[in-house]
Amino acid sequence: MNIVTSDNYKLDGHKFVTFYRKSRYNILLKLAAFSIAFSACFLFLGASFGANTEESELKNEYKQELNRIASLGKKLDVTELETLAGSIDNKWRGKNKEYYAQLMLRLCALLNTGQFDTDRQIELSRKYALMGFKFADKLEIRTELDLVLNMITDTIFPNSPKGENFAEHRRGDVIARLHVWKRLRDAIDPAWDPNDLPRKSVLPPESTHMGLSDTQLKKLREEYKVEVVRNHKKAETYNKQSDARKWLKGFAPRAEKYIVKMYSRPPYDSKELEKYLTQYGMDTETKTRIMGAVKKNTGGR
């Protein structure tokens, strides 16, 4: 089973098939960022080098952890993997939540290759995804979504959870899905116009203008800086709105299917499900559809 991420939305039977599709307007954000870099001499002369150094050191530490995980993938030793996961948990949990979650996702990726000699791969992958999910509200939406897509409770193998143990797993899986589902809905601005594109780049003013005073030239430069920042923010907004819609469109039907499947298995508890759907602000139409499907599958229980 391959790692499931927010770009992996094709379904083949009960397995997600990986495919990668970048947002068509990511290039706009990069070009806008280039425009800002062009005018950096105007904007960032007072930046703190100490802060940049600290961030750089943190990124280097993060890259080292990624290398450790990659090296472990060549050994396929589940005991070493669990030891490394404990080390990452101790070091990164309070250090940087986003990096912590990304490292947990890398551990999920290793486990989901199916190459480790253990029948606990689904269980461990879910465990590490849940560990990263503890800080869901502090994570990027995409990171949270990728974690949630790796939270799958085994219902097939003989040692899969049963009874109250299964009910506990189900609660965790469903709450996580409803949480990120709500974040995606809340991230969407209904007034956003997809046809109102940011500019690919903002051209700087010419270095010389015949007949313009120094004051007028300074004003042109200031106007340019403002326009660069405005266009950069617009590109960011465009990408965020475009991505949120794409992710929601791919995630919602699969989350709904998973929720119906889990609550259609014993121990039945439609009242609990209805409580969670209400708690996470599910719209009436979707809530009615989910509850109807579960009650149909369970004979009204």
Give an overview of the whole structure.
- The chain is mostly helical and 301 residues long.
- The protein has 2 domains: 1-19 and 49-152, no CATH class; 162-301, no CATH class.
- Helix content is 65%, strand content 2%.
- It is built from 11 helices and 2 strands, in the order ββααααααααααα.
- Strands 1-2 form a two-stranded antiparallel ribbon.
- Strand 1 (10-12) and strand 2 form a beta hairpin.
- Helix 7 runs antiparallel to helix 8 (163-187).
- The longest helix is centred in the last third of the chain and has 50 residues, at 214-263.
- The protein is flat, with a radius of gyration of 24 Å.
- The two termini are 33 Å apart.
Looking at this protein, list some descriptive labels.
301 residues, 2% strand, mainly alpha, two-stranded antiparallel ribbon
